[in-house]
Design a protein that fits this description.
With 78 residues, the protein is α+β, with helices and mostly antiparallel strands. The chain is built from 2 helices and 5 strands. A 5-stranded mixed beta sheet has the order 1-5-4-3-2. It is globular and about 35 Å long.
Length: 78
C-alpha cells in the first residue's frame, strides 16, 4: 500500500508536532479501525500516553491521509 498525505495532513504533522514515522505506523498497522459516515475510516494507534488518530480515504491501493491528531486515551472506549 502506498501512503499519500493531503496538504492539510502535512500541515497538521508540523503544527501538531507528530512524527511522520508515527503516522506511517498508524496507517500501516492500526490498533483499531472505525468507519465514518463519509465512507472514510478512522485509524487509531496506541503510542503510550495517547492514541494517534488518522482519518483515511482509500483509493484502490493508496491510503490518503486526510487529517490526523493526538487523542487522549480517556476519550476512547476500546
Amino acid at each position: 500500500m502506498r501512503i499519500i498525505y493531503t496538504n492539510h495532513a502535512k500541515e497538521m504533522l508540523i503544527f501538531r508536532k507528530i512524527p511522520k514515522s508515527f503516522a506511517d505506523q498508524c496507517a500501516m498497522n492500526p490498533d483499531q479501525t472505525l468507519p465514518t459516515r463519509q465512507g472514510k475510516k478512522i485509524y487509531l494507534k496506541d503510542f503510550g500516553g495517547n492514541y494517534l488518530k488518522l482519518v483515511v480515504a482509500h483509493e484502490e491501493d493508496i491510503l490518503v491521509i486526510v487529517t490526523l491528531h493526538w487523542l487522549a486515551k480517556r476519550q476512547i472506549k476500546v
